[in-house]
Design brief:
It contains seven helices and eleven strands. By secondary structure, it is α/β, with parallel strands linked by helices.
């Protein structure tokens, strides 16, 4: 996509942190640096961890927040599908941007992430899609300026290429101020164990309830991974694809079943 085409593109913005999230404002700013035709459809409430889920068993309600900005009572996947198939059906988006997530979406996290799912849904619908996430360290403030200063340039460089139809891009910004970013690295999805744990508590009426907590687990060291790039102060740019088939295992299985 040429710069002139990007400037004329219709961009759909979504996220998983919800319509009131500061990261959504950051992504709207990034999208505005690319084009003046920006539409926002984001979840009414936080949908972190929703992954690539659709609301199939309940109706969706939409609220117009302001011109070209809508909140939907659904998941990020719902938002993208609703925008493409209904709200913007007369002129569909040319680009889908999802984020900017509060916290990284790397390694195994991509399977849980609603931010990734927003881009994944755009990809499924045949639209070039990019997910953005900003690393941060609790309790320090999130450095949204890093994303807004570098996001549009990363998007332009990525969109300048021809993509396979089943590929989308996952971008993670490091937890450093904008001027301290060391550059960008094209990476692979790393490996990090899910540090999930269950917290059991008691409600005021004596009933037990449970809360899933999350702490990133240990990761396998790989210089070319998204984890290594962000830890080193680089922007991580990872191409992801929808085909989950493991080819080596597929070939082994084929040989095994052909023996029968």
């Amino acid at each position: 996509m040429k710069p002139a085409d990007i400037a004329k593109a219709r961009i759909l913005v979504t996220n998983d942190d919800g319509i009131h999230a500061p990261g959504l404002d950051a992504l709207i700013e990034i999208a505005g640096q690319l084009s003046s035709d920006v539409w926002v459809v984001a979840p009414e409430v936080n949908q972190s961890g929703a992954a690539h889920s659709l609301s199939l068993s309940r109706p969706l309600r939409m609220r117009e927040v302001s011109e070209a900005k809508y909140a939907l009572e659904g998941t990020p996947s719902d938002c993208v599908l609703f925008a493409v198939k209904h709200l913007l059906k007369d002129r569909k988006p040319d680009i889908v941007l999802s984020g900017v997530n509060r916290g990284t979406n790397m390694a195994d996290d991509v399977t849980y992430s609603g931010t990734i799912a927003g881009a994944m849904e755009g990809c499924l619908l045949g639209i070039p899609s990019i997910a953005f996430s900003q690393a941060y360290t609790h309790p320090h403030p999130v450095k949204w300026g890093t994303a807004t200063q570098h996001g549009a340039d990363v998007a332009r460089r990525v969109l300048a290429l021809d993509w396979p139809r089943n590929v989308f891009i996952n971008v993670n910004f490091p937890d450093v101020v904008s001027a301290s970013v060391k550059g960008s690295k094209v990476t692979r999805q790393g490996v990090r164990g899910f540090g999930g744990h269950i917290v059991e508590r008691t409600d005021p009426r004596g009933g037990a309830y449970y809360w899933i907590g999350y702490t990133p687990g240990e990761h396998e060291f790989d210089d070319e991974s998204d984890l290594a790039a962000v830890r080193g102060g680089f922007i991580s740019v990872t191409p992801l694809h929808l085909d989950l088939t493991h080819e080596a295992m597929r070939r082994k299985l084929a040989a095994q079943f052909e023996m029968a």
